[in-house]
Automatic annotation (TrEMBL):
PANTHER family (UniProt xref): AMINOGLYCOSIDE PHOSPHOTRANSFERASE DOMAIN-CONTAINING PROTEIN-RELATED, AMINOGLYCOSIDE PHOSPHOTRANSFERASE-RELATED-RELATED
One Pfam family matching this protein: APH
Source organism superkingdom: Bacteria
Organism (species): Nonomuraea marmarensis
Protein name from the UniProt record: Aminoglycoside phosphotransferase family protein
Domain Aminoglycoside phosphotransferase residues, every copy: 41-196
Family annotation (InterPro entries): AGP_Transferase (IPR051678), Aminoglycoside_PTrfase (IPR002575), Kinase-like_dom_sf (IPR011009)
SUPFAM superfamilies: Protein kinase-like (PK-like)
Amino acid sequence: MADVEEVEVVVAHHERATLRVGDVFLKIDADQTRTDVEVEAMAMAPIPTPEVLWRKPPVLALAALPGTALGRLGEPSIASSAAWAAAGAAARMLHDAPLPPWPGRSLDEIASHLDGECEWLVTNGVLPTDLVTRNRRVAEAALRPWTPVFTHGDLQVTHVFVDGDEITGVIDWSEAAQGDALYDLASLTLGHEEHLGDVVVGYGTHVDLDVIRAWWSLRSLLAVRWLVEHGFDPSSPGCEVDVLRSRM
C-alpha cells in the first residue's frame, strides 16, 4: 500500500462510496446495517467472494478480485458465451444454498414501491405516460408468489468478475436476502438480452422468460429516480430508459 500513487473513486454518492487503493477496495457506508448484511452474506455464499481484510466502521476493506467485470450496462460485453453461462451456473449454486436468516422485500412492499415510483415518473414528467404505463403492465408478471431462495439482490454485470471463461468472484452483497431467483437472473441480464440464453443454459433448469422480462421493466422503473437523484444518467444509451423503451 505504501507504493500506491493514487486513489480511484469507483462510485460515490451521499449514501456510500467505494475507493480503490492498489489491490484494496475501501467501502464507506453510512448505514452499517448494509455492511453487516454484506459481510454475513459473503461468509454464507457458496460462490467466490472478495476476502474481507478488515472492518473499522464505517469502512470495510476488501481484497480486489482477479479478472474483469462480466460487462457494463450500456456497453457490449466482450465476455465469452461460456463466461455468461458460468455466471448462470454461479447464480444457480447460490440459489440452491441454505437461505439467509433475514427476509427480503414482500410482494406488497415491492408493488407499493412500484406504484409510487410510476406516479413520480409521470407526475414529474420524467418519462412519457405511455412508456410508464406499458412497462407497469409488463412488470405485473413479476408480482406473483415465488419460493424464496438465497439471492444476491443486485446481481448486475459489473458485480460479477470473470477471468476467461471462469467466474472469479461476485461483489457488493449488501442487498442479499431471501428473494425471487428470477430477479437475480433479470438483474444479471438487464440491458444484455442477447446473453439471456447463455445464462439460462448455465443455470441449468427451466425459467420463465416472461417473468425475467417483467423484472427488467420493474427494476428499471424503480431505478430511474434513484439514479437521477444520485447523479447518474438512466437515459444513457443501453441503460434503464432504453430497457423500458425496448418493452414497447
